[in-house]
Amino acid sequence: MKAYNSEGDSGYSNEKYVTTEELEDIIVAVGVEGIDIFDVSDPTNPEHLSHLNLNGWVWSVYVKDNYAYVADWYGLVIVDISDSTEPKEVGHYDTADLALGVYVKDNYAYVADYENGLVIVDVSDPTNPKEVGHYDTAGVGRDVYVKGDYAYLADECNGLVVVDISNPTEPKEVGHYDTASLAWGVYVKDNYAYLADDWNGLVIVDISNPTEPKEVGRYDTAGAAWGVYVKDNYAYVADFDNGLVIVDISDPTDSQEVGHYDTTFAARCVYIKDNDVYVADERNGLVIVDVSDPDDPQEVGHYDTANYAVGVYVKDNYAYMVDSKSLVIVDINDPNSPEEVGHYDTTLAVGGAYVKDDYAYVADGRGLAIVDVSNPTDPKEVGHYDTASWAEDVYVKDNYAYVVVGDNGLVILDISDPTEPKEVGHYDTASYADDVYVKDDYAYVADYENGLVIVDVSDPTNPQEAGYYNTASLAWGVYVKDDYAYVAVGLFGLVIVDVSDPENPTLEADMLWYTFFGISGN
Questions:
Q1: pLDDT one-digit tens code per residue, 219-237
Q2: Do the domain assignments include residue 517?
Q3: How far apart are CA 196 and CA 180, in angstroms?
Q4: What is the rounded distance in angstroms from the CA atom of residue 321 to the CA atom of residue 289?
Q5: 236 and 212 in one domain?
Q6: Which domain range does residue 304 map to?
Q7: Residue-wise pLDDT tens digits, 281-291
């Protein structure tokens, strides 16, 4: 689970998690039965505070100040959450159609109202919301994002609609771009609108001139690559429901697919040891693939974990599986017959893990858990450090653990005494730190909307940004080998960056015909 703040969440389903601007320790979760409020001041023990039933099917929520603004199918519902243990509906506006999306800016709520288009509601008095403006789009309003004087609507079969809202009482369409499929979601950053366009994949539209939006990029998603590992001249790509894709990168400027193995479910993460590839295959658990002949990969072993397998790390004769709720240790001495030998339940969902010597370092949402695995059959937590935000992943080098902590950036912990980890350094990246790889004196951070950030950690107590490369899309994962950083940029592909000079990274090549969400490696 990741939290989205009130500066904007485009959303993608009828279940969202949103943080407030002022109630920092409160999250509001919405679903088909209303809203639930949780206190997360202690991330190790989130407390369910309250539930409020609503009449309609809740599709989205936007939290601002002490109010949650809910699109609940029948219209806009305003809930007072100043007392999070007793949320109270204080206002409601019944829109003409199905309220599916909502965005709040200043004193106005902008509602994507299905076939009724865009509805603008004055919420200066939350107890008495009033419609002040309306624009009926040609399609079906699914989602809305507001930036500056413009509202950007994902209008399903009508694509992207840009509406001038400088005067909320008289909204006017000023721009339109018809995508090839059904625009379901929209997110705006800087001069680009990113559209989730159903079978057409991700469409990137330049809105620097809102009156003339132009498509500048598109990625036709066949699968959704969640991980990649590089060994010798090959990149091994976990391509979600497309399985394992093997790519020859001997010439980084001319990457080519040489092999493919279709796993049963959704390949999320991949690790290489000798001639075997270990794939975290979501509901299918651990899949072991022999790639001694990259042109003809063959499955040789399988172990079904209890939960969704999302990550894997291999050391000696053991595979350490991250299965969304726990750390599972699997004996792979015989790859044809893997067996579980140890298990450790974490408090929250596991983001990533790193194994060094006799310890597994686990990023488990609440922070960094240090687990003694000297006896793989009986793993025990010996140390823990609470991070200020959601711990996504970790990399260990020498006596330091480098933890990427979402919107809190990079946190550096001294782990010379694993029983008492201590924070010694911190660098706050501009976006959402999702993955990290450390090589020599530099930490390479996949910083979501901010691309690749290179941090000088020669002095771990004083990390400084050394370089930056704009990947043009969402950087989810990073792996570094020799002079190259391989960056998984979500729905846009694989970007290979020359980091021989970390202060001046340059594009070496890109691979834009796959979808990548994460990179895992040793």
A1: 554 544 344 455 677 756 4
A2: no
A3: 11
A4: 16
A5: no
A6: 227-511
A7: 556 677 777 76
